[in-house]
Amino acid sequence: MEEIKTKVEPIDRWVIEPIKDFINNSSTSGIILFSSAAIALFLANSPWSEEYHHFWQNSFSIGFGDHVLTKSLHHWINDGLMAIFFFVVGLELKREIIGGELSNPKNAVIPIVAAVGGMLFPALLYIVFNSSGPSLDGWGIPMATDIAFALGVVYLLGDRVPIQVKIFLTVLAIADDIGAVLIIAFFYTSNINTESLIVGGLFLTVLIAANKVGVRNTLFYGIVGILGLWLAFLMSGVHATIAAVLAAFTIPANPKITEKGFYLKLDYLLNEFKLSKPNKFTTVTKEQLYILEEIGDYSKKALTPLQRLEHQMHPIVAFIIMPIFALCNAGVTINSSAFSNGISMVTLGVFFGLIVGKLIGVVGITYLFHKMKWAVLPKAITLKYLIAIGFLASIGFTMSLFISELAFENNDYINEAKIGVLVASFLASILGYLMIRIASKEEVKPTNQ
Question: Which of 79, 29, 44, 39 is nearest to 59 (CA)?
Fold first, then answer.
């Protein structure tokens, strides 16, 4: 077969290809997220601390006439940018339910059970430290798992980690995301504005109807979903991120052309392109241009709008939205006065809820179901790997920081919760990484003897 040669320009070699490799590296998003948090912590505890905190309080408005929303930059990030994050989470959830790990209940049972245990025990442990008063509202903070961070740690070790471990952790984190969305929807909403909620329901109906009648234009879903559904939910009191998840579930998940139809048409078009008479220039002929446009059109029809959107938006979320969120929310000022009365119960509840509660919930419930033969644990997942998964599930970070903002109005409680999240997530990352290395080394020992 003749080797296909493509011209490599200097910009491809020195700029585009390195950037693509960097973005496609599975651990890159986690590294950038961690770096953003580290920068935020540095700025919040530096001589520029006051300027750092003041910057996020700058406010601006959107709207027209008498209908204007004015919020601080901090709130726009948490209510607006994070809605895009939850939209992509919704796309991932729908894809997993339709054709991913959650499509086969038999394979998904044990990681889902582990996720439930990993949400229940952290909440209970938090309540042990904060059984009454306003601090009790933070029980949902240690229930969340940061999927980007957790999987980033796993992928740092590459092929040494069994694929079953990666799948188990992925399904657990996805189920955890569903739990976090439900917790936000049912427990962390403000006073409900019925009129706005009804308007939101009407926009949701329009999106569902559009899906049913075959509308596949993602711009339509974006306009109705953002200007209609998201804005209505934002004004209703139900957190706007829920609107983003609901909007994602209305995105069509079926291709316009079957796989067989696609490759038959593509085979025909490629043959037509081969038979077309070329010119002597670098530009293509009108006939070739028409054929290439048809190939592009049919390639688009063969891909579902859901997967196309998820693929396009994932880098935006991973490399722009989440780092901005970390820069805005991870900056906790830690000084002597913060611990003048000892470590707060909120910090202890969040810390032990994540580190201990997650570990007990994930490992304990999984081991119980496996021993009682209620579900089957993959053979590749040894007890050490299971403990490693328990620690990685303890990385709350993005989701836990987000819920901290929803749970409390008192800034002291918010900062105390964030300290617990940051310390626990950092420690969990190290322990999970080390535990996976230990488990993977023991796994290869027999082959060396």
Answer: 79
Per the domain annotation, does 176 fall within a domain?
A: yes
From 430, 418, 432, select the one nearest 350 (Cα to Cα): 418
Asked if residue 207 belongs to a domain, the reply is no
Mean pLDDT of the chain: 82
**How crowded is the C-beta side of 34, counted as CA atoms within 13 Å?**
17
The token pair at 386 is 């299971």
Distances (CA, A) of 195 to 69, 191, 199, 233: 17, 12, 6, 10
Give a yes or no: residue 271 inside a domain: yes
Cα–Cα dist 391/386, whole Å: 9
Our CA angle for 77, 234, 411, nearest 5°, is 50
Residue 165 and residue 115 share a domain: yes
The runs of H, that is alpha helices, within 353-410 are 358-359, 365-371, 383-392, 397-407
- Domain region containing 98: 25-189+239-253+322-443
For the chain, residues with pLDDT lower than 70 are 1-28, 63-68, 101-102, 107, 157-159, 190-191, 335-342, 442-449
Tens digits of residue pLDDT in 331-366: 887 765 555 566 889 999 999 999 999 999 999 999
Judged by DSSP in three states, 70 sits in strand
- CATH number assigned to the domain comprising residue 55: 1.20.1530.10
User: pLDDT (tens digit, 9 = 90+) per residue, 214-242?
Assistant: 888 888 888 888 778 888 887 777 777 78
Report the residue count for the chain.
449
What is the helix, strand, coil percentage profile of the chain, to 5?
Answer: 75, 5, 20
